[in-house]
Write a structure and sequence with these properties.
Elements (H helix, E strand, L loop, with lengths): L8 E4 L5 E4 L11 E2 L7 E4 L2 E3 L2 E3 L2 E4 L13 H12 L9 E4 L2 E5 H20 L3 H33 L4 H10 E5 L2 E3 L5 E2 L4 H7 L7 E13 L6 E5 L2 E4 L5 E10 L13 E6 L1 E7 L4 E9 L6 E3 L2
Parallel strand pairs: 9-10, 12-13, 16-19
Antiparallel strand pairs: 1-2, 1-3, 4-7, 5-6, 8-9, 10-11, 13-14, 13-17, 14-16, 15-16, 17-20, 18-19
Helix pairs in contact: 1-3, 2-3
Length: 307
Amino acid sequence: MAAGLKMFYARHTGKQNKKMHISEIAPEDKDYLICRYCATRIVWVDSFKRLGKNIPAYLRLWPNTAHEPGCKNTMKSLVDALVAESTNIEDAQEVFAEDNGNYVFRMNVLVDAVRELKSAQKDLDEAAEDSEKERKRTHYQRTEKKLTDYFNSAAGIAKLRARIEDSEDKEELSKLVTIMFNKKKVSWNDFFFDENRYPTLFKKASKIDYPVAIALTVEKEETPVANGAFFTAKGETCRVSKEDGEKDFFCPELRSHTSGTLLKFKAKEEVIVVGWLNTKEAPWKHGITYKNIIFWIDNNKQITRVD
């Protein structure tokens, strides 16, 4: 039986089915938890470390149970809700296309919108007359809003993947949502990377020409770099020991030219990031090599909390 997705909200049967976020749940509450949307019992999973990274506490289905039919915490319900939200975008192509009851995530729609925004910015910068500037500004703002919605959809589908633990659930998501880019299928393993797959992402980076999604836990909150050129926030490091005794430290980093873009994400929060990546390798002392995985953040919706 599939394990079900990670959850971060529950209802407390001893407190009149009160809805509670995981941050509100005390040790004495743990025996009274049921699903937020159905009566299925759920269990608390304590935080733990994996490859040097802290995995925050979460909730999951009680062993050998399943959500009730129609529960909003099932994979199908969550995917349908996300797709329904994405189709409400004004004056935009559908980033999710229906395919015999399932969906296709059309990554080119997102990529084309990025190009369109850059073109709109150039047109606005080059506009001479006030009337022309106003028209170009309106077009830029409409294009920016459209791209924001697309990033929100991409981060949303990656967020669902981040909540999966069981291989059966991964298989179900891959059947429900197929990813396409330049008329070719992109596997979920080549789009989404959690903390234990940072080494794989770093190795593949030079061959990836589309936006990817990663899960990270914030370690260092937004700070300006020394020369003030940009702002940075860092995720917890994935540490891998090699047979020769040397170590690779895979370090996710977010960068933005705008102050405050990264400020709302706090230390120990688990987030999803969508975008184009850059990598940088820096040998250090004691046999340690830092392998940085860098994302530039130009749109707030490129980042979302897992919970």
